[in-house]
């Protein structure tokens, strides 16, 4: 049993609640919300050797994490390094793991130029950093408001929307060799038209493109607790940073979901269950 300190807000849960994934992830009301969380072990079950009461952990429990207490199998929980803030820790097993899976899928290396569509978002802002840790360059699409933010993450910002293909084509610099798509809206088609091979495209959202072109679609679901633990340690050591857009107390969960639904912002929105 874990006493949750912070849990992340995710746009996918809005889609599930509205029935967009009814065949894959049906919603049965009333039901919980929130997947990725950080907190203290409050009780341990019989035979659990790895954790003790009071240990700090991060974990993943689909549509159950936004609660004062959660019950988790030991396989869904890994240690939280003390140096990592509760807010950043709460996002490790969700957007952190998703960014990790997407980056692993395209296997960036020195000399690569990777486009990240939606680079300022929860997944995109972490993927932007992980790609550069592997020696590749990043072109990140965002609104004009987030151009400076992306430069601060080491990426070359590119305005999304009308004329994106032409802007990508006219861009001065090495050709684009891979795409991580967190947005949809034709980004996969643009990458293919720029000559990127389907095996070096990973989309989180474009189901049609996966069917049509056989592009990849690795996400949170393909990661392991060992990878969550590694990511938590990397974030704690400062290898990458989880940008936080806003922290909300539990009483403001409704406003938090309204803000997430705008699909604009910088990094993660986090729900705080208790002070510390
Ligand atoms: N299957 C999985 O395991 C999994 C896990 C996590 C996420 N996902 C999915 O991946 C997607 C991204 O998640 P997220 O948490 O990163 O989303 P998010 O944080 O809500 O993304 C918001 C960002 O998207 C940017 N954006 C909005 N419209 C855009 C456009 N047309 N082009 C480029 N950027 C645009 C915004 O930039 P501006 O503010 O500059 O407009 C903002 O920074 C979601 O659809 C989510 O459901 C799947």
TrEMBL record:
Entry superkingdom: Bacteria
Pfam families membership: ADH_N, ADH_zinc_N_2
InterPro entries, per the entry: ADH-like_N, ER, GroES-like_sf, NAD(P)-bd_dom_sf, YIM1/Zinc_Alcohol_DH_Fams
Residue stretches in coiled coil: none
Enoyl reductase (ER) domain residues: 1-271
An example Gene Ontology molecular-function term: oxidoreductase activity
PANTHER family the record matches: ALCOHOL DEHYDROGENASE RELATED, RETICULON-4-INTERACTING PROTEIN 1, MITOCHONDRIAL
Identification of the protein by name: NADPH:quinone reductase-like Zn-dependent oxidoreductase
Organism: Actinopolymorpha pittospori
């Amino acid at each position: 049993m874990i006493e949750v300190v912070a849990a992340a807000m995710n746009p996918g849960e809005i889609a599930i609640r509205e029935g967009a994934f009814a065949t894959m992830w049906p919603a049965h009301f009333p039901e919980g919300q929130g997947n990725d969380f950080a907190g203290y072990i409050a009780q341990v079950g019989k035979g659990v050797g790895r954790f003790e009461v009071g240990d700090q952990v991060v974990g993943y429990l689909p549509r159950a994490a936004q609660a004062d207490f959660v019950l988790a199998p030991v396989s869904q929980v890994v240690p939280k390094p003390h140096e990592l803030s509760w807010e950043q820790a709460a996002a490790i097993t969700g957007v952190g793991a998703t960014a990790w899976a997407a980056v692993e899928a395209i296997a960036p290396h020195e000399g690569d130029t990777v486009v990240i569509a939606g680079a300022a978002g929860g997944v995109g802002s972490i993927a932007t950093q992980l790609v550069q840790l592997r020696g590749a360059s990043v072109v990140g699409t965002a609104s004009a408001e987030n151009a400076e933010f992306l430069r601060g993450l080491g990426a070359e910002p590119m305005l999304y929307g009308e004329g994106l293909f032409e802007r990508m084509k006219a861009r001065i610099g090495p050709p684009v060799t891979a795409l991580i798509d967190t947005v949809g809206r034709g980004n996969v088609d643009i990458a293919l038209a720029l000559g990127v091979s389907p095996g070096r495209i990973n989309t989180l959202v474009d189901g049609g493109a996966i069917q049509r072109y056989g592009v990849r679609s690795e996400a949170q679901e393909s990661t392991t607790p060992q990878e969550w633990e590694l990511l938590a340690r990397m974030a704690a050591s400062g290898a990458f940073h989880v940008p936080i857009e806003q922290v909300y107390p539990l009483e403001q969960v409704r406003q938090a979901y309204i803000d997430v639904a705008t699909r604009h912002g910088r990094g993660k929105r986090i729900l705080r269950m208790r002070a510390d």
